[in-house]
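ok so i was messing around last nite and threw this chain in just to see what happens. nothing serious, just curious
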Amino acid sequence: MPEVTYRNSDFVLLLQDDTPEVREVVHKYDAFLSTLCREEYDFQKDAVNTVIKYLFSKKYQNTGDLARENYSHNSKLKQKFSHIADYLAKFPLQTQKGCSLDLATGTGKSYVIYALAQICLAEGLVDKVVVLCPSLTIEEGLKGKFGQLASDHTLKKIIEETGAIHKNPAIKSSNDPILDGDICVENIHATYERTGSSIEDSFKHKGARVLVINDEAHHIFSPADNTIKKWLDFLHNENFGFRYIVNLSGTPYIGDEYFYDVLFRFSIRDAIERGVIKKVDYKFEEGLQVEKG
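result:
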């Protein structure tokens, strides 16, 4: 039988919900995103809007719903997975409303994270946001950037004019109680601690009203990252009951297998062609998979 070639783009999930309610939420924040994202970074707006459409859609109750719809319409998926159960087994967060974004390193993931957090708080989809990352260095970088953006007078004014429910987020770590309207930025190790962390008190039994955003999310699912292997356990913890989960990574792979819950992709090739990052010396990652039929 002939070989079958797959590209990463073959597995990017497609949304099919263009209801007026979803469009209204997206367009409500056009001015906010246009101010936040510079012209050459307009792909950031596309990434944010795609996730917002999904999170606010009533058509998809969880990732499994979206995956089933895509399987029914995607011939490449049916070629790769003879049974839908085999495909769904690739979704560790299928019972929650989760997704991943493939954004190449250097494309401004922090702006996308902040925009998602601010819009979901402003619109009242959630009451709190927790942004998790794998190291103290990344944590400090995110907190610094979010602090700048949260204090930007133009952005604050635009959000206020939308009639935001939570309009001026405080940027905190888990050293302090996380209140409604706050954005908590923490490294994943803080979720394992029982002392000196407000994670349990702030989020226990409140997960249905919390947006969890995971930066460098490939660490969550990597069997090699034993030191942070509890990350996925935290997301699944029934004591928290997290519903909304967004993962971001520039290398969304488990081993050499591309994430199957990617909702938006802006690759290294895209970034170089757009002039967002400089040309690199190594060969492009084409994302090709060749299998014998």
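not much to say yet. The chain has a mean pLDDT of 91.
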